[in-house]
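Lecture notes, part 5. Sequence design as translation. It can be helpful to think of inverse folding as translation between two languages: the language of shapes and the language of residues. The source text, in structure tokens, appears below.
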């Protein structure tokens, strides 16, 4: 698990997307990952559901690395 913290608007999502882009350019990810924003999640059940909904396949399977956080 990785937690990226910072004030609103400092570039957390942008930095993560740039990192993933560089990783994919070097070698597509072979593992699944999930990007979750905790904003607005007020229960553990919502958190778990959001993790499941935002799980991304590796680029090799045809999925993009572009983040699409659910709200």
């Amino acid at each position: 698990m990785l937690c990226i913290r910072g004030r609103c608007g400092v570039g957390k999502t942008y930095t993560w997307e740039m990192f993933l882009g560089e990783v994919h350019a070097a070698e597509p990810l072979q593992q699944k990952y999930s990007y979750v924003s905790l904003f607005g999640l007020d229960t553990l059940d919502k958190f778990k559901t959001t993790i499941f909904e935002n799980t991304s396949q590796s680029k090799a399977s045809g999925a993009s690395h572009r983040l699409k956080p659910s709200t």
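The translated text above is only one of many valid answers, since several sequences can fold into similar shapes. The mean pLDDT is 80.
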